[in-house]
Write a structure and sequence with these properties.
alpha+beta, NADH Oxidase, 3-stranded antiparallel β-sheet, binds flavin mononucleotide
Length: 170
């Protein structure tokens, strides 16, 4: 798919079919994450692939909507801050690296006709407990991965003049 088509095709899918996701598609999605750029090439994250079948009740404690567990697969990305590149003013880049890798996951899934939805409004402590995430690692984002059972809505975005300026801040 052309990149321009891909970025317009992606939307936040909030209803999923039960159909299984082919293993080769998950592998392609994970390869897209692996190849993502990261500050100083540190890749300071761990990606957790979770099958929802048989775990729906506990997974709903992480993010309590029905559609979160409708898809057969949920993917989480967790930041390992101690592995990340830190700028000399102290800014740790793990969250940025996680966001780039997650966006690769999401765009790769879209390219394979799969639906996804960025989820950050989850319960961090429940995510730690249920997925066994250690203290020094931070779950950053989740997405279901499955076949969409809804349709995209009209995109609402700020006009380009509102988000872009040239030469200096104005
Ligand atoms: C960092 C981030 C966090 C988000 N967290 C949530 C979330 O917790 N729950 C949710 O339903 N949508 C979440 N979204 C989806 C946004 O609401 C959505 O991307 C935005 O409204 C634009 O709609 P679209 O994705 O359909 O183009 C998140 C998106 C991003 C980028």
């Amino acid at each position: 798919m052309e990149f321009q088509d891909l970025i317009f095709k992606r939307y936040s899918v909030r209803s999923y079919k039960k159909d299984p996701v082919e293993k080769w598609k998950i592998e392609k999605i994970l390869e897209a994450a692996r190849i993502a750029p990261s500050a100083a090439n540190r890749q300071p994250y761990k990606i957790i692939v979770i099958e929802t079948e048989g775990r729906k009740d506990e997974l709903r404690r992480i993010y309590s909507t029905e559609w979160f567990v409708q898809a057969p697969v949920v993917i989480a990305i967790c930041a390992i801050k101690s592995d990340a590149w830190t700028r000399k003013d102290g800014k740790n880049h793990a969250d940025i690296d996680c966001a780039i890798a997650m966006d690769h996951i999401i765009l790769a899934a879209t390219d394979l006709s799969l639906g996804t939805c960025w989820i950050c409004a989850f319960d961090v402590e429940e995510a730690r407990r249920i997925l066994g995430i250690p203290r020094m690692v931070e779950p950053v984002a989740f997405t279901p991965v499955g076949y969409p059972d809804d349709a995209p809505k009209q995109k609402k975005r700020k006009p380009v003049e509102e988000i872009v300026c040239y030469d200096k801040w104005q």
